[in-house]
Protein 1
Amino acid sequence: AVVTDFGVAKALSAANVVVRDADSSGTGIGMAVGTPAYMAPEQAAGDPDTDHRADIYAWGLLAYELLAGTPPFSQRPSHEMLAAHIAEIPEALSDRAPELPQSLNDLVMQCLEKRPASRPQSAAEVRDALEQAATPGGGTPIMRAAVRWSRRPRTATLISLAVLVMAIAGAFAFRPRARTLDANQVAVLPFRLASADPSLRYLREGMLDLLAAKLTGEGGPRSSDPRTLLSAWRRAVRNETEDLPRDRALDLAEQLGAGQLLIGDIAGNAQRLTITATLVGVRDGRADDPRSVSGPADSLSAMVDRLASELLALRAGEGERIGAFAGVPLPALRAYLDGTALYRRAHFAAASREFERAIGLDSTFALAGLGLSTASGWLGTPKDQFLGRTVAWNHRERLNPRDRALLLATAGPNFPGSSGWRALIAAKERYAALAPDRADAQFELGDGLFHFGAAAGIPDAHARAMESFNRAIALDSSFSPAIEHLVVLELERGDTARVIRLAQLYLAADSASENRDGMRWSLAIARGDMASARAVLARRDSLSSMAKITITELPYVTGRDIEAAQTLVDTPTRSDADLSARFLDLVLRHDIAMNRGRPARGAAHLDSLRLAQPNSDDFYRVTDGLFWDGDSAAADIAAQSMRRKAALGGPIPGTFKRGKDPAYFADLCMSELWYLSRGDTTGARRVSRVMLTNYDSRDSLSSPPMRMGCALILDAQLAVMQQRPDAHARVDSLDAFLRTAPDGPILRMGNLVTSRLYERLGDTRAALFAVRRRDFFYGRASFLSTYLRDEARLAEKAGDAAGATEALRRYVALRGDPEPALQADVTAATEAHARLSKSLAGR
């Protein structure tokens, strides 16, 4: 018997090095990979300790199916099936097949035990039990004659079936095969005529030319040359009225090197036609569901266009969305399908180009807009992301309910306005509940929890994110975005063995992905292979933006290899020639310097920033002075500059001019925060009141959250400074807003302000909760060192020694080589870490 193209085995074979290097085995790669109907509970849960006993469970499932007719839980959707394998006992086999001997029933059900330790522990045990069950008197009850008689046909059927399977497998093994099959080439056979109407005969071969005109190969499938195909077909048939049997049709497609075979029927008359067709994979013989189109004969071209679109969508796994493709030109559909395939393999830039091309061909293509929004979000290109969301939003009536839920989960329920993180996560939860069988739905939920869950105040956000990513991989083991995120979470947990397995699986699936160097870096760090890490850094000029983000942000997650990230951002690259890229690089270099306890170096980067764009450094100098060990004198000068820019040098206005952008409100807010920190309350109260009461819808979309947040920060600060009776309530209002607010500078500094205000009010636990709310692996790591230092102090004060120890570990690692002015602070943190570690060890 020959096992052909076995999906999971193929994926694991491609990642064979994972098995060898991780000292793992087969199914036990530490993640949920497999077909839901045949997965052991530990596989479905993504248990990294899965071993050969999962195969014992799978054998039990197959035996159950052969003897009962269907596997357990077969009528349920994939996600429910996975949950059932984890938690539910299958219906007893004896209830489904009462004629079986009890010993065989017991063996199969024992193989389906939830706990691996309760199953047979080896294939040899299963074999021995089978031999006993098959031997009358061999320690098992003798069947009654009637039962024995009723079992013979079943046994004969199973033997016949086994022989048939081997015969078919053998036939496939010895079929002459083309050296290579082009997955994009489609062999279109002459269509069968289901009608005797002679006026339709022209379509028998004519469909080849019509489909060849649609399947041109431009960014997708192409038809085999009709002349070449007809020549081969005529050699294969006795006369031109004959239709080839399926196996011979597959042979013919194979001879032409086509990876797909299209067969179809035509029915109707000269006035009205029905065309039915299906695509068959030549290598595996898998046929998609047939698609049919009907209409007047004079609309033949449009019917063929629709038929081709539906067939391609079905083959690409987009069958659920066929309704959304109505009226979409075929070239636009091909671009969309190519973009979808590229996105699944983490080729985000290429996917964005394909989605944008699809929109260029059809400006109402809502699904292409959704795709562009999602793919460009990985690249940090807001313009493309906004374009995609706008197209999808303006034509959302063309989306099915689940895709409309996806739109809300990515664009936010308030688009084109901004939505808070809690609202976004809630939208992602609704999408995951509505589409539990979609890998991207599980990923979207995991992604929201991964990046924003902690900032939204969800304490177990990362544990829930891991569950979602594992579910996404269980549904689609090649879904690279989920694997990438799991690698980061496992690095955060310190599980380097699983990082190695995941990273190698990712690279084995597609070594040309957008973040391949980021994944190679992660793999090198997990192994402690600094030579490979340096080799990645040596290619800094050719690194993708995603790889750079991975390399510079991972140290903040792990607390290790921070110097390498510093080296990467401090080394000039070709991108420095571009002003906007240089600006962002300087901000990143500044952030790393400040986190590392090098404020003088950070200030030097701000000097360069000022040369690139006058006064662009003011905001950063004030926030450095408030939250990041920055120069107070420089911050004071910058605050005066910001006050002048916001027209607050003279009397404070009662209203704001319309159309102000976020920079205006940022200047206004930060200058007054600085003066408040110096005890000057003259401007803060009025600015807070005006920001709250003078809203204009024509202001920039991001202004309202900035204004509301700043007003609440100033108001809470004033209340605490003035020891007003409502001070705690004012801080609570700020705290509630920050848990729902969108990303931005107000949120990043707001949680620090809130934490410090709660601490001044004596509410240590609320202060600790606030300081632990911060986004994760999402752009700038603003004030991270300050967050960690404050968290360590508050955690120890609240009695959370373990939390304090971990925060101090990361703080000390981050500031491993500070400037002299901060050396005493780092020394004190190092001593506190040693003291707490010793205390925990003694406990």
Protein 2
Amino acid sequence: MKSLAVGFLAFAPVPAAAQTCPCGQTLACYQTNNYRVGKIRIETLFAKNVPLDWIFKIQELLLNDFTQIKPELALKEGEKFTVGDYNSSHLKFGQLLDARNAGERFKLIYLTSSLQNCNPAALTIDVVYRVFTTDGLSFLTARSERRNDKVSRAVLIPIPGSGNRKLLPQPYVGFNATRGLFGGSKASFKTTGGIINQLEFDVSGSGSSATADVALIGSKEFDDGFINYTQWQVAYSYSNVPGDSIRLKEGILRGQIFGGSHPLGSRGLALRFGASIEGGHKQADLPANTITAAAGPADSRYGAIKAYVGGTMNWGRQAWRASYGLQLGQGGKDVRVDYIKHVVDTSYSARFLAREHKPLRLDVSGSAGLITSRSGLVPIGERFFGGNIQKSFIQGTDWEFNSSPVIRSFPQNSLNLIGPGLPIGGKSFFSINLTLAQTIWYRAAVPEELAREPDLKIKLGGAITTERENAKSSYLDLAPDFKGLVTDLEKLDTVLKELNATLDAVKSTPQPGPVMNAINAFVEKNPDTNIRLIPDALDAIAAAHADKKVVVDQAVTLAQDFPDLDIESSITTVVKTITNARDPFAAAGLPTSELDKQISPLQAIQQDMVTKIPLINDIGKYDANDIKFVADKVNELTPILAGIQLRLSQLPPPQDNDPVAVYASKLDAVSQYQKAAAGGVTQVNQDNVTVRGAERLAVGYGEVASAVLTGLINSIGEFQAPLQQKGFSAQAQALSDHATRVKALQNEIRVRLKKVRIPEIERKANRDVAYTGRVLDVIFREMNLVAISPVAMIDVARIGPLVSPTYDRLRYGLGGGLRLSLVSLDFDVGYSWNPRRLPGERHGAFVFALSVSDLFR
């Protein structure tokens, strides 16, 4: 299935104008008094929240969008204001702003419009749109299972007119004790079509080092099957980097292929795999007295075959990764396997959100490696060198994992001695790294006024419900029995129309009353059920043909009986009605054969449909008793919600100078959730599948798009203090009692919903929607535009073989620092001490790190 893309357009009530007529309190007043549109402009909640548009250019992004959207709106500056144009322009603006970028899996838009600057003398009024959108943060929401460690300059610093074929340089600077101050640039050139569709390069240099990487890349994605995507590339890498008493140089040409799976299982396990064929030259510049035969060749040809497999699994704010790599290497001139390298790398990351926007982040990683060789020809450049920079097992892959001991108290490549007078570099290693970071100061990405808006949260829940149905529809397309069910509906349509034609032929001549009553039972509305048997069945079939999302729902209505609920399908009722028509037809001397011949086809179609429905849909697997229990409990909410509405109607409206400032907002929140809950109850009673509406009412989609009943209960709780401060203690207690009853019913509904058997298609759709819930939770409760966090670092490492009583000790790194986070881009600076320093080693090393955290895992 294609990745789920969700966009939300939230409409808020239009604030009334502050003036009286001729400016008016309503939209119609401006239209009636022939006002013209003054200015049409936008305000962004980002710009008002924190002045960071110079970094993310969010203001510029929206202004550019608005410049293109504005001519498309029905409202025009200088032209007459009309209510119709105002409403249609709001809708059009939202639709155009909702256009998603390629590969964008999630998009959130919040849009309100208002009228300002009423000028009764000039008869003009301004239209102002207030916008919040995740567009400026879209690089964070790239497709899962794709590369997530690159930041696009096209997002951070938009280049006017930049397109798919532009070369976009990304300059950067860095520092470490080994290389000193270095600088460089990355660039990417993309095109479409062809085996190779992307060029990437990365060059950097300093007074003591130089690196360069160039790659020609092609890729392909797959909607179905085990494989999610594949990528292949031809690349060249050059590196000249010093270490303590050593300089490592290499030039390598690589041919590579990589791939990844679609998420597997309920936890979304994703597998990675790849291989690389490499060849080139490796050189180690060492002092003359350190080069020995046992050290292996310091200057040699290089050839290798590498393969790896890895996987990642996410659970809420926790993520696990593990990888294994195997390398068969050539160390001399002969084409043979001189050494074998094994590397294992694993990591665990978690974010603990005890307080909103102040996460405690824990990152733990562990790596180990081993080199074996019968010939002893292991190039020095292929040995293990430790320090504060990771070394990827295969360069250029979408799945990067460490293949060297990481210890931040040593500069790059400087943990390299296994003993005095022994070879440089190790043939075995392990390292464990722990990093803790606690946010102490932040500016939230979503303004608090928006994060607390109940109308938005309610609409988010409704939008997710819609997207879940869209996801289920996509999975239905892949279900082998879905097309067969559509064919059954077409057959049923033919049989019912033939039956209808037979009845019309009989009605064409005068018939006795009992015959007409029998015919009318097929076509006229039944006073008890309010159903027109054949016309409504044909309408259901037509609706199924028009919208694939309702195919199974209509099929259930037409063919599925629920005896425990005393619910009879349309086909069963038609067959019974045919049987009941036999006697009056026979009494009037009419043949019954034309009616009887429809029974067998109807029953065959029904049996086929009933067989297919449970294979591709949830409805056929729902237990009738569960459905009835949930429906009954939902209906028990009706008098409670009516009681809440009554209590609210007895409260005085907010005053302009109300001493309790939060009274108005809390009253509005309870009112909105009460209306949403009442609407949810109505929807459950109208829906063919009670479970869907009940889930929206009682379960919800996480902390942000929570259950409607949860929002109602919480809003009543938050309303208690303002009510008591205004002297309405009795009303506060009454609402609290109502909330207690709602909570009890919600718990009962939740418990029974857990017992409902969920089929495969429902599980897949829920898994996709769960991602959306996690993203919303991160955006509203955790994501910060800017944050500062103290950092603690602990490292343990060892390289071997363990042959020296001094050098075989565990080496430690203990350090601290500070992290500056810009959304998910983390800049770490600190210092790590080397507490077990050996002669010639440094006291420690400065730590400078730049990383992108995967907030949306």
Protein 3
Amino acid sequence: MHNLLRDARYGLRMLVKNPGFTVVAVLTLALGIGANTAIFSVVNRVLLQPLSYPDPDRLVLLEISSPQGSGPGCSIPIFNAWREQTSVFSAVAAYDPGGPGVNLTGGDRPLQLKGIRASAGYFGVFGVPMAMGRPYTVEEDRPHGPKLAVISYGLWQRQFGADPGIIGRPIELGGEPYVVTGVVGRNFHTESQTDVWLPLQADPNSTDQAFYLFAAARLKPGVTMEQAKAQLAGAAQAFEARFPGQLGKGGSFTAVPLRDEMVAGVRTALLVLLGAVGFVLLIACANVANLLLARATGRRREIALRAALGAGRGRVISQLLTESVLLSLLGGLVGLVVGLIGVRLLLQMNPGDIPRIGPLGGEVGFDWRVLLFVLAASLATGVLFGLIPALNSSRPDLADTLKESGSRSGTGFRQNKARAVLVVSEMALALVLLVGAALLIRTFMSLRSVQPGFDRHNVLTMEMSLTGSHFDTTAAVATLVREAEQRVEAIPGVEALATTCSLPLEPSFGLPFTIEGRPLPPGKRSHGGGNWRTVSTNYFEVFKIALLRGRLFTQRDDGGAQGVVIINKTMADKFWPNADPVGQLLSIGKGVGPEFAEPPRLIVGVVADVKDTGLNRDPGNIMYIPVSQMKDGVTALNNRIIPLTFAIRTHVEPFSVREAVERELRSASGGLPVAHVRSMEQVVSESTARSDFNTMLLTVFAAVALLLAAIGIYGVMAYSVQQRRQEIGVRMALGAAPGAVSRMVVGEGMRLALIGVVLGVAGALALTRAISGFLYGVKAWDPVAFSSVSALLAIVALAATYLPARRATLVDPVIALRNE
């Protein structure tokens, strides 16, 4: 300990004595450590920190599994099976994951709130604390039960002035009175920032197989995940016996940790970004190691004197490593500040769909894990970049070193193998990052060139929640749509208005279908499945989706007419490859539940394909249904789980008519508010936001890596020229032309760069597979990306070696030989 303290004091004096070296090294390390700290802060919040619920490790999401995998989502009968036939859970809850919103009415201006319907078990599963009152009970959560509500602490304060008399008082939601039974505790938060919880009131005898709910459960103490899965597998067998074929071939029930399911969509991307920013830190370490090697040359006499006075090699290495660690700790301290600033900037640019980070990243902070990470990264980098210089400097040739003058090192380019290895490593790491960035940039460009199948320009969208009994019938919704069309289309600048349950590129319902008159495949209950979208008459006009065969919907396709459907080209080509589907009959939703039971629909048209689930995915089967021809039960179900979306095509800038459109829609609906106002340009942009975010970050990291690699090779070549001044002077005195000297220096630098490029290409071929899932329109081994990045790195290396080469040609042979 005494030696360590003495080494630390001496190391601090040496760092203070060389402020230029210290500042450059600390800033280089701070850049690498700060970038890692920023990314790790997000990884820590999303992947490492436990959920904020009591005993979060016992929370699971219940899912349907199949040979192809598993996923969340269930029907009411499946939820009932989980709730009634398992004994491994202390509580099971079902809830709608999105919800259409809830209209707070009764005031001067209606307000759309974020609301979900949840079974009574929700509050036990998630351990919801109550600031006041109580949650609704199992008895109250029955079909036709009382209209009750639990509200959030924030809503209680914002809208009701923290009135303690709110408990037991009715509030108006969707024009109907709901009695408030409880106020949720201040510190309870959900991912969607819920304002109000309403009873699910699911029918225990329901046969409705529509998947629109999520289900979560809490494991009983002592129950393992394996035991829960075994119990669920037994429940699946009982369910299949009651509802044959509903789980599909090989289907079963399973459970996954809730946190794992919440972060499944971002885990790989975050780990890739953490690995990428780790490469930046390694390059920074290589640069600082090169600085230390250069500095060690000037300290050779000092180290030789230490050895001559009896200091062993281990003692010398200990001293040099202590100095390196002190340097890295200073870099870590500055890097912590850089990381704090960086994570704020990072979260300002985030795509908005990263789970667990809260609005604008408000949940991301620095806790003990982040501080421990910074400390560990600082210590590790200190040892990493300090070890090579320490080992290289701890074996001085005492006789030669003590005989040399202080101005000579006696080392040439070939003796600087350690520095050459570091530069090669920098170039290789930089190339890997640059190739990754190039692949994502090419993906970005490919997505921008995709034709989505609809016209996104001059279209304004907004949502309206139709919860409440007033719009439970299809006729009432159809009347609202007609009134909205008449009012909004009279606004100057508006061309047409349409409604839908789901915009292009956003999730929609999936339903099975059967083709009348065609035998079913063996063991199948339907001919296939597809996305099911309810639309109004002007939908295809608003989005300019081309009609290929047949006709579009008209006002005559109402509730009193024969049921009709329009399908997309993909579905027509797949199921009628050599025939015209127009005029064929299609049964949709058969076997899903009584709400969906209806006579077969007549296919009246085929329209062009639309990228319905993402710009990077091929179109699937789509079935368009007139909003005026839905069954009342389906309309009521739709209103409970999704909002009605309006799409307005304009002749002018869309947002210029926003206020007028909102005013007319409120009048048409009887005063209901609209929310989530966006242009279709924004909808398309949001669909690629996460990919764009990853591209931006990896490009920034790659640019930093390229800059650090260029600095590294420049430093090595500049130092080599400085150390070889006498040799270069002799060459020039013997007749070497300046061009030959320049080519010699450039050639040595380019050899290092090309070795790094070759190694980097090999590494990139192996590592870019990690981002193959993020690519579109380009392969992970894309030759254009690899060749262009290799050429760019070679050009940067050439530029970095040019200045030292130019300096070499300016060496005065007389002065160089005089010094010799």
Protein 4
Amino acid sequence: MDRKDLLASTRTEFLRAFQDAIDDLILLSVEHLFNKADHSHSSVIQGRFLDARGVLIARGASLRQPLMTNMEQLLYRSFQTAYNTFRPSFSTAQQGGGLALLDSSAFEDELRIDILTSRFRNEAEEQLRDLNIRVALLFEQDNIKERENPFRPYLLSRCIATVVEAMGLSAELISILTEQLAEALLSKVAGLYDRVNAHLAQHGIAAQLQLKIKKFPLQSPISSTASPRDDAPQNPASDNPAASGGGNAAFGKRAQPTPADSAKGKVDQLMQLVQSRAFASAEGQADSAATAMASAPAGAAKSGWLGGTHIVGDALRKFFSGVAGSDMGAEADNPNWHSDQAAASAATQGRVHLVGSIHKLVKNSTPLSDDMLGADGEVRNLILEQRSSLNEITGDASEQMTIDIVAMLFEFILRDNAVPAEVRAQLGRLQFLVLKIAMLDPALLTRKSHPARMLVNRIGSISLGLKQIDPSGVRVTAEICRIVETLLDDVTEDAYLFSKMLDEFDEFITRELLANDVQVERAVHIIEKAENRTLHFARTTARIDEVLNGLDVDPHLHQFLVNAWSHAIERAERTDMDGARRFRSLIPQLLWSIQPKVGGSDRASLLALLPTMLPVLREGMALAGWSVEQQQELLSWLVDAHAGAMRAHHFAKPSMTLSAVQALFQELVDNPEAEPQRPIAHGKADFDSQFLDEAIKELEAQLHKIDEIYDLGVDKSPQDEIPEASSDASLPAEDTTETEQAILAQLRSGVAVEINLGGTPGRGRLNWVSPSISNLVLSIEGQDVPSIISVRLFRRLLANGRARFLETAPLFERAVESLLLSADQVDGARA
């Protein structure tokens, strides 16, 4: 069965199982509420249970349909957010209502739902584990994540909570009814997931661990001999080797410092070094490692997230690459982890509490802009200020590592002097929010294309050209402040808002650049005209060529129709659609006119057609820009072709009728906006130079055409030849190398560059990038008019050292590199 069909049938089976599970849900809940009221020792609590029971008796019968409707909507949304490599959609899905998986505005409600979700998960732990594996296999993923399972228990708790909240009851009754309905459903959850697993098993999706489970970074796998994890903390000094994860007897003896103690010390040393590097001058950084070693107190923080060899540089590199190394684990602080599934379940419960605490910091402890500077005048590192309290909340090594890494990255970001202080202050206000997202989505720290990371980089990159864009800096800073406030006010956990803010920031910068320079704005209009006309011409050419393909057409006429006549049609369609239709209608007439005319009726028809064809043909050739000599040459050729057609012998092959030929071109004549069947090579012909010159003349503008200079060999010696780039710059990112992706990612409005065109490097700014990523508009110091350059040539200049971005690396990536350098320095000092 096709994957999409199997998902659709599994979705149907899940809904059927859910419907069966809720059939007697109300009756069970009414009974349980009576029993709770009967056994209650408080009259107040007893009254609440009875009130909730009364609500179910009066309105319970009407809850079944809302539960089904909400579940269908949640499933629809859940499928849209499943593994991001695949987005199935079902025409039967109910899309009304716009129900989102996270649509409650109260964070306390979310925590209650998380608790209910955990209860469902624990009740059907084995069945859910099998289903998570099957879903990952079905989506062809090597990461098994419950969050990506479209049938996860969260849907059950969210569905119940949403329906109860919609009843318009008091907060107390909503809480009681939500928990009671979830409790009644609890006994049916295992059976529900059994049915879904059975359905997938019948279609060959086995719950076999064929794929490597990749958990949150740095949760290292522990030996299967480890003892089960208990709720009560166990003494790490125990002589039980199994308690230390994997039976290492050395962990059970305290005569010598343990690897955990060594790891904690090294983490603290790294933290001290990061702070010293961030504040130290360039001359003073050489001795910063030794200073950090001396000042780092042993065991100053609960941060033993290093294990194994304790090489901090390797640990961080594996972390940023998304690989959980086998020698980096939580066993140093968490010796009781006994299996991936148990660890994942316990970590999820603990993370709910940690994320809840970070959320409160986002809402309650994020300072206003004026309060972001500390007593020393530097931007405050809010995470470092809360580091101890955050580490006390969690005993999970991967969470501790995330807290420390985000804190250290911001230490570099907030001290980066390439970014104005007012911009760094705004970025600093995002610290808790970024930490919260990193806890919920590890891809923030492992994937450069994560929206939150890209937004930080974009804000940082614009800083180098800030004075050129906005000399006062007021408007750009105000826009950054608006974006930060929008992000802080959001209550969801979806990175989509970062993407939206990134798009809005790009639009704002582009508007600012165009508004501040009339010549740049005119240059953009010129390129847009040239690109649009080139694309329209290419579409017309392709459609004519498709119809001519397979027909016996004289090569001379074929070349004329595809090249010159396409220009005439494109130009006519700018202002005169009737004229363009006449030009398109002439094509079948010309083709028919030169075919052999055997019968007298055909000859008569040709003689009657020629007087109407000639004026249209002359009009089109003139519009296409043909000279009188070129027009006369074609007309002479047609005279000879028509004379040959009239002299055809009676035994010649009969030609198609005029109406038959016109029928072949009917779609071209009547539907000029239709796309050709074959795709147009995007970026191969960015724009025709003829169209560019036309647009420049129409707008009476001046434009420095860099590509034309290099094509003509003007102002360059043989040693200045620019080698061709390895691939076309307009290709989608997934078809390019990582280096090319990085280049394309830096091509944004407002980015500062240096370019050497005449032997002397000059500073410039990218004012505009075409949507097709094929052409750029530059402002270069010392030039009065804007410059246009193709992305293809710009990449060649980059490869040849004739151009470079003034920002050597994006802001977030600079912080990562600085952190890795500090880690290597710690390792070297210890060695």
